[in-house]
Amino acid sequence: MMDVHYKFRAVKRTATKSGKCPGCGKRYRLQRTFEQTINPYNRLPDGTPKSMEDIVRELTAECIAWRDRPEYCGACRELREQMKAMGWTSDWPTFCAKVESIFGPIEGLLETAPEVYLHMVVAHGFSEYSHVLLLDYKDQVKLRAAFDEWYTAAELAPALREEGWDAFLAD
Ligand SMILES: [Zn+2]
């Protein structure tokens, strides 16, 4: 009996990207190689073994997704992990679920206790959002633009936008 060793052919694609850390603005230049081998066990979801073309297509997609994703620096990544550990989130549905578990439905809060709505929903909501995304608090113009974008996306009460911004600043 003889041992047979197969050497599978590796297919590689290397991507590079450069940019600024979205948190602190520190510049980076990174390179990463994505790899898969052509082998009988590397299959498509339908069960057929991947061809060279299949693998190249997947690797190219991975390279593009990686290249287009901004990269936080080590310090900012750590800060974000700490905020996550505290339960802070930039995800609106997650934030709502957290508030509603304490105060009940947000629309109800708007009707019965608008000052709580301004503080707990608007001020804290944007506070968590802006901290988790490490938005720059020194740049008030950009921060206000981010607030408007966030406010609109969250479909918060249009009439309370200015009061909400003031509540956030006061918080
Ligand atoms: Zn950074």
Please tell me what the overall shape is.
elongated
Mean pLDDT: 92
How is the biggest beta sheet arranged?
2 strands, antiparallel
H/E series: EEHHHHHHH
Number of domains: 2
Structural class based on helices, strands and sheet pairing: alpha+beta
Order of strands across the main sheet? 1-2
Q: Which percent range fits the helix content?
A: 40-55%
Number of strands: 2
Evaluate the radius of gyration: 23 Å
Bound molecules: zinc ion
Poorly predicted parts: none
Termini separation: 76 Å
Beta content comes to 5-15%
Number of helices: 7
List the helices and strands and how they pair.
Layout lengths: L8 E12 L6 E12 L13 H17 L5 H12 L6 H12 L2 H7 L1 H19 L7 H14 L7 H10 L1
Antiparallel strand pairs: 1-2
Helix pairs in contact: 3-5, 4-5, 5-6, 5-7
The structure holds zinc ion (ZN).
Question: Can you walk me through this structure?
Answer:
- By secondary structure, this protein is α+β, with helices and mostly antiparallel strands.
- It folds into two domains: 60 residues, no CATH class; 84 residues, no CATH class.
- The protein is 53% helix and 14% strand.
- It has seven helices and two strands, in the order ββααααααα.
- A two-stranded antiparallel ribbon has the order 1-2.
- Helix 4 packs across helix 5, helix 5 crosses helix 6 and helix 5 crosses helix 7.
- The radius of gyration is 23 Å and the shape is elongated.
- The termini are far apart.
- The mean pLDDT is 92.
- The structure holds zinc ion (ZN).
- Zinc ion (ZN) binds next to helix 2.
